[in-house]
Structure formats: structure tokens, C-alpha cells
Amino acid sequence: MKTRALRLLAGAALLLPMQAVHASDNASGDPASPEVVAMQHAMITLDTHLDTPESVDRPGWSIMDWHDVRQDYSQVDLPRMKAGQFDGGFWAIFTPQGPIDTASYAKVRDFAVMRGMSIRLMVASHPDQFELALKADDAARIHAKGKRIVYMSIENAYPLGEDVSMLKLFYKMGVRETGFAHFMNNQFADSSTDPNGPKWHGLSPLGEKLLAEANKLGMIIDGSHSSDEVLDQLIAKSTTPVVLSHSGCKAIYDHPRNVDDDRLRALAAKGGVIQINSYGGYLRASKPNPERLKAMRALYSDMRDNADMTAAQQEALNARRREIDIKYPETDKPTFDDFMKHLLHALKVVGPDHVGIGMDWDGGGGVVGLEDVSGLPKITAALLKAGYTREDVTKIWGSNILRVMRQVEAAAAPEASD
């Protein structure tokens, strides 16, 4: 199951008709000074949505090697994490939405369990470099050791089938954050981007049970990808603050995946946090590129049809992707400046106590000027230039999500995780 291919293909199909919008002269951002890099090194730098487990499962690919985003299109590995002073975050168990039936539930459940085990295996294989984190306080302890922090999350609750008690299995595996839907409506909730519109007008009855189970276990509630109605209900009904693990601001770009200012304020009023993403299709409008889209759809179709590719087959497809990039280049790709517009707007609306970073690395994120995690100090430099303090930046990069996690842990039922 080539999850990245399915995600990017579906994402391209869901983008609204768009007109070109041109970036400012500072599209790539200012370079980070040695002082900023040192500051980044000292603080805990977390991202709440990493799709890197898909890379980890690629044949012949190693998290320990420096990879070139222009060659294999991956964005996170240990050397680049170190170069960007990036400590880690929430490594996602993602499954694309499929049919709502018993046979499909069993198949996707098995896939999700194996993806979770792949994350655990990555940590176990490199114990001197990575450590599994289960509590908010683990982050500081792991950071002090100079290791990378591995929290686990579920992006789409689809693999749980119709048995919300399955969530406890994933909790015991290490999962501490769960979303509800992805690109399409499912058995739990409506998606913000289902072309058929809402099915449940919020959470389904099963989705309400899932919310209660997640609250009981002590899992962070993630509203990204869910519809506005779902977000409203999550904020109203959750016993703990809600997080948007990788979302943007509708006031900057009116896309269904983005959140309006009133909902941002409602999220913040309950202690929640929006983590700003860098998925280009959600940042701003871009010129249509039909030839490229057609070629990419053909490529992703081949990836989807070859679920168990060898390393050689994967490289052959990467080579085809590079050929597409040369023949049909992305001439109007969103930039670092576009990402910062969303980040600074959210900060203006709800303040530095309720904003964080969730770039969607290895799931379609990345912009011109910040193509992989090696350049993360650019964000810190831009925030400081905009007038935010070191304390503010520390909250944005990790303290806010860890504060929510502590609240979630405190509210969990004492017997739930036994």
C-alpha cells in the first residue's frame, strides 16, 4: 500500500480551481544565523505530523542516511534532523480511506498495526539515536540525551473498523494522538474534503464513542482533515483541549482544509493548539498545470498497482518522477513566505500559547525555501524577525503541544491504560 502516492494523488484531485498568486521577494526566507541555530538546538523542536514512517518502510531506504529531497523526495532522516536541530515529534500511522466494509477493515487494521510496529522497530534498531516517548515529560529527558523524540499518532481512524476498543491496542503500542477522518468521510466522522459532502454532519454515533474512548485513554484529539462541523463538536465535547496537528488559516486561503478565525478562537478558548502545515495546496492558489497532473496521476497509478516494490522498482519510479519535474516543472509552487503568512496570521488571532508547527513532512509538505527538515531554523529566524520572543518561539516549537499532552494525561481515567 503506497500511502504517499495515494495521499498526493487524492490531494491533487481535491484542490479547488485556482488562479496564480505571486510570492514576495523574500520567498525563501532569511538564512538562520549561528545564534539562531544555537537557540534552536537548545529548545525542544517538535512537529506534530510526520509521515516519515512511509519512507522507513521503503525497501533499501535508511533513516540513518542523508537523502536528497530532489532525488528520492523524502524530507526527514537522522542526518537532516540533526542539521535542522529537529528533535522529532509525532510519527504517523496513516492509512488512506477505503471501503466501509468488514473485509476492508480487517485489511487496513493489519496494515496499521504493521506500520506502528515499523515505527517501534526503527527506534529499537537505533537506541542510541531514537527513543519512544509516551508522556509529555519524556521529551525533555530524551532531548537532554541528544536523541530524537518519537511520539506516535494515528492520522485516520479508519483502521479501527467499528470497534473503538481497538484504540487501546494502539495506545499500548505507544500511540498518543488520534485523528478521525482523512480525505473522505468514514465510519467515525465527516471529512473536510469529501466531494460528496457531509454524511454525518459532524461525528457519527461511533465517532462520539471514539472521542470518549480517546479521552478516557489519554490520547490527544486531532481535528485536522475533519470537517468544520466535526471540529465544532470535538471542541464542545472533548474533555481535553483539541489539537489541529497540521492545518492552516482560512483567512489566508479559503480552502476546506483550513480553519476560520472564529473556530481558531474557539479552539484556543478551550486550551487547544493549531499546528501550521506547509502542504502547498492548502497555502495559496497556484497556476493549474494539467500536463504535470496527468503525468503524476499515471506515475501514482503505477505506484499504487505495485504495492510491494523492490528497491530497484522504487528507484525506477523516482527516476520517472525526476523526468516529470524536468519536463513539467512546478513553476508556481508555494514558498516559505506563503507558509509564514499562515503561521503569523494564527499567531495574530490566538497568540503564541495556541500555535505550533505540523509541516506534513513526507506527506506532501515542504515549500520553496524549506524543502526538508534541514532548514527548520529559518522558521525561528522569521519568528524572531517578526518580533516574537525566545519564550514565544519555545512555546511554538514544542511547549504548547507538550502542555496539551500534560492536560490530556491528567484527565485520563486511571484504569484506562491498564
From TrEMBL:
Keywords assigned: Signal
Keyword Signal: yes
SUPFAM superfamilies in the cross-refs: Metallo-dependent hydrolases (SSF51556)
Signal peptide: 1-23
Keyword DNA damage: no
InterPro entries in UniProt: Metal_Hydrolase, Pept_M19
Domain of life: Bacteria
Record protein name field: Dipeptidase
